[in-house]
Structures are given as structure tokens and as C-alpha cells.
Amino acid sequence: MSNITPFDEMNRVFDRMSRDFGRMDLSDVGRMNWGDVESMRRSGIDIDLAEYDDEIVVVADLPGFDREHIDLTVRDDVLTIAAERVLESDDADESGSYLRRERRAESLRRSVGLPAEVREDDASATYSNGVLTVTLPKTTVEEGSDSHRIDVN
């Protein structure tokens, strides 16, 4: 008779699933038949969203990206953060000098619903040490729903 309880076995299964899930390539989710896994995939951009009396502040972690490759837009009370990192190809790669190469080109995108209407034209953003801070002053209801691009300083 085994000393392993059904709960021990269930815990091992969940541990194995969570380890494997972190390594899964979810780009071919359409072929999977066990639910909407795509909605469970993280965007790779961790954020903090704070609302103050006169403004909304979004802080996002984007380590390793250049300021020029970060794109911010606001439309219909949704802030969209997009960032792209392209690695330069290098002759050492072709010669087989690398023992391990994990850095890769990457494209991230995250949309965040804002809890209040904002003055898009007065929005500002700063990027320092891999941290993006977007400040969006609140407003009253205004006409128009065109998107507005925010420059990153």
C-alpha cells in the first residue's frame, strides 16, 4: 500500500503543469483543444495603475528597450503601450562562438483601460532605467474620440 494520497498526486500534477505552462510556446494555440489558453498568456509588460484626484499614473516595466522603440497611444479611455526590441545580428553568431543565446528580438503590447477620461493632449511620459511612467491628467467629458500619440521623454 502506498503512502501517497490523492492530494499528493494532485499537487505533483499541478506543479508539473505550472512548470510546463511557463515554457509553452503559445503561438499555435489554435490547434489546442482545451480552452482559451491565449487569454491566459501574459503580455510581458507588468504595470501599476494609480488614480489620484487630478491624474492617472501608469508605471510599466520595460527593461532593455530603447526609448525610440516605445509607442504610446490613448484612445477611448484606453492606454496602449507597445515596445519592440530588435537584436543586431552579428558575425560571431554565424561562426558558432555562442554556447548559449537566449536574448532575442521581442515585441510587446499591452492595453490598459483607464478609470476616468483624460486630457490626451496634456499626457506625458518618461522612461528611465527600464521603467516607463505615463501621467494622464483627468478631464471632464470632451467631444471627439480620435487617438492621440504620447511622446516618451
TrEMBL record:
InterPro entries attached to this UniProt entry: A-crystallin/Hsp20_dom, HSP20-like_chaperone, Small_HSP
Gene3D superfamilies listed in its UniProt record: 2.60.40.790
Top-rank taxon: Archaea
Coiled coil: none
Pfam families the UniProt entry points to: HSP20
PROSITE patterns hit by this protein: SHSP
Domain SHSP span(s) in chain numbering: 38-153
Family that this chain belongs to: Belongs to the small heat shock protein (HSP20) family.
PANTHER family: HEAT-SHOCK PROTEIN 20 FAMILY MEMBER
The protein, known as: Hsp20/alpha crystallin family protein
Gene source species: Halobaculum litoreum
